[in-house]
Design brief:
By secondary structure, the protein is of the alpha/beta class. About 35% of the residues lie in helices and about 20% in strands.
């Protein structure tokens, strides 16, 4: 029996450093709209390439901590979720035939269009794109992992 959720499989990915409310918004949305969720967490190897321009990159948590935080969050909110290491910037999204939606932030929306172009190239249906608006803290500042790392430095 098919559930009442609009999508079969949601995909999303990111660094997920210092899991915070903006990450939770992405994860909650995926869990709410899809029967299954795949979350790709940037691996250590890929991170060495991608994190070079991130603020306070030397403070990014190791993959196992980031992946465990995401997995623990998902266990509390969805039964059918999988967390995997992203070893390339796209993960399985361009070739996953079961995926039918991608959940992104407004900052990463462009990557969803690229993924759909890749899917077109191998004759897979495009993913619907769900864009989550930024989440702000009590001071009105847009939440990000870079901000969280910066705040840690300031409080030390």
């Amino acid at each position: 029996m098919r559930s009442q959720k609009p999508y079969r499989r949601a995909v999303l990915g990111g660094t997920f450093d210092r899991l915070h409310a903006a990450h939770e918004s992405l994860l909650f949305t995926a869990a709410f709209i899809a029967d299954e969720v795949f979350v790709g967490v940037v691996s250590e190897e890929l991170g060495r390439q991608l994190f070079q321009n991130k603020g306070h990159a030397d403070m990014i948590q190791p993959y196992n901590i980031r992946a465990a935080s995401v997995a623990n969050f998902l266990k509390r909110h969805i039964e059918n979720a999988e967390v995997g290491a992203l070893t390339d910037p796209w993960g399985p999204a361009p070739s996953d035939p079961k995926a039918d939606v991608i959940v992104v932030s407004s900052e990463t929306e462009k990557s969803a269009f690229t993924i759909n172009e890749m899917r077109n190239g191998i004759r897979l249906d495009e993913l619907d794109i769900v864009v989550i608006p930024g989440v702000r803290d009590k001071d009105g500042t847009l939440l990000s992992s870079t901000l969280m790392r910066k705040r840690e430095i300031q409080t030390d």
